[in-house]
């Protein structure tokens, strides 16, 4: 039987409601409550509600970069002792504040056998596939044409072919290189890449990992040149203070009027206001987004209500941050969280500790 001293666990942002059964065997040593709806501490009323919600809990399990936990929220949670996040890091948690407050933070432990290039971790594999689903969905008008057919219509527009076009890759890390490889091999696209420190030698090494000859991944001389030349621009950059808003009004202004922009990385990498203005004026062909400045989108968000693809506006294809949300990935993360909770309850050191 649970008592007043039984530790309490809060599970945040479990949109599919699949987490609680993974923790059920820990009762009565632990009581578990799930809160699938996200509260944003950037809004004062939601911040107060978030603090009130979480104040009784000794353990909080979060999904990476859904509910932000800044220092002032953490300081208002005196019972909190253990914070578990999916993934190897979480930019939405103030880790330094956790250390000052004596809160242990643990992420996903590194794999016992890391995947050897060009293999990817399951979450990156999932995002790679979703990136191409969005590229193809936007280029072939899949969502719009599906709606037309269901409404009783038929062909209303043309699809966009990819063969021979230029795929611009903003960030040629593991995910960017995997995306580029598919574009080159599966669709016969020319690959042009850029990042702040990318050299042609480094790009050639990335290509050779995939069995492609040197020069298969060409390096653009500048970010603006990448944006100017790309028929499809796919964003694969790490969000930081330097990269925030790296695709803004200047970059959007040089893109082709037929260009397609795809972001499965992080919403704030693209300046949202500049992008909305660009799309309202129909200055690029369209955008496909899996990530947003604020998530989940509010019911009144312009992304939901903008009437995109009509009256001269650019096409917009949206998905609700599904790039990593495969069943095997999500359930695997919750199993890792359960193991760390068991270690903590037994007085053992957690794995994947972040502070």
How would you briefly describe this protein structure?
This protein is α/β, with parallel strands linked by helices and 355 residues long. Helix content is 34%, strand content 14%.
Oligomer: single chain
* SSE series: EHEHEHEHEHHEHEHEHEHEHEHEH
Poorly predicted regions: none
Number of separate strands: 12
CA-atom Rg in angstroms:
22 Å
On the 0 to 100 scale, the average pLDDT is 96
Strand content: 5-15%
> Into which percent range does the helicity of residues fall?
25-40%
Work out the helix count: 13
Task: Report the principal-axis shape.
Answer: globular
Biggest β-sheet: strands ordered side by side in the sheet: 8-7-6-9-10-11-12
N-to-C span: 33 Å
Structural features, described:
This protein is an alpha/beta fold and about 350 residues long. The chain has 13 helices and 12 strands. It has helices at about 20-25, 45-55, 70-75, 95-100, 120-140, 140-150, 175-185, 200-210, 225-230, 250-255, 270-280, 300-305, 325-345, and strands at about 10, 30-35, 60, 80-85, 105, 165-170, 190-195, 215-220, 230-235, 260-265, 285-290, 315-320. The strands form 2 sheets. A 7-stranded parallel sheet has the order 8-7-6-9-10-11-12, with helices on both faces. Strands 2-1-3-4-5 form a 5-stranded parallel sheet, with helices on both faces. Helix 3 links the parallel strand 3 (about 60) and strand 4. The mean pLDDT is about 95.
């Amino acid at each position: 039987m649970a008592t007043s001293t039984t530790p309490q666990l809060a599970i945040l942002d479990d949109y599919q409601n699949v987490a609680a059964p993974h923790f059920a065997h820990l009762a009565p040593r632990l009581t578990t409550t799930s809160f699938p709806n996200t509260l944003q501490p950037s809004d004062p009323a939601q911040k107060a509600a978030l603090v009130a919600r979480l104040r009784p809990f000794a353990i909080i399990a979060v999904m990476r970069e859904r509910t932000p936990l800044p220092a002032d929220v953490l300081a208002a949670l005196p019972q909190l002792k253990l914070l578990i996040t999916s993934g190897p890091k979480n930019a939405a948690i103030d880790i330094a504040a956790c250390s000052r407050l004596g809160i242990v933070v643990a992420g996903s432990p590194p794999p016992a056998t890391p995947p050897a290039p060009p293999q990817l971790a399951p979450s990156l594999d999932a995002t790679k596939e979703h990136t191409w689903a969005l590229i193809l969905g936007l280029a072939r008008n899949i969502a719009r044409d599906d709606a037309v057919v269901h409404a009783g219509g038929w062909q209303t527009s043309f699809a966009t072919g990819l063969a021979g076009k230029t795929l611009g890759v903003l960030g040629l890390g593991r995910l960017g290189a995997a995306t580029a490889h598919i574009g080159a091999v599966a669709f016969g696209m020319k690959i042009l890449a850029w990042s702040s420190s990318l050299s042609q030698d480094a790009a050639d090494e990335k290509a050779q990992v995939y069995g492609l000859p040197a020069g298969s991944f060409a390096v653009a001389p500048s970010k603006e040149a990448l944006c100017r030349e790309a028929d499809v621009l796919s964003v694969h950059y790490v969000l930081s203070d330097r990269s925030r808003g790296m695709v803004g009004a200047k970059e959007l202004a040089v893109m082709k009027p037929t260009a397609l922009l795809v972001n499965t990385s992080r919403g704030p990498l693209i300046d949202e206001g500049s992008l909305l203005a660009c799309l309202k004026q129909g200055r690029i062909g369209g955008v496909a987004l899996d990530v947003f400045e604020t998530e989940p989108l509010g019911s009144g968000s312009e992304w939901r209500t903008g009437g995109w693809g009509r009256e001269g506006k650019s096409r917009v294809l949206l998905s609700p941050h599904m790039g990593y949300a495969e069943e095997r990935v999500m359930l695997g993360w919750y199993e890792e969280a359960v193991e760390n909770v068991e270690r903590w309850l037994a007085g053992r050191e957690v794995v994947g500790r972040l502070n």
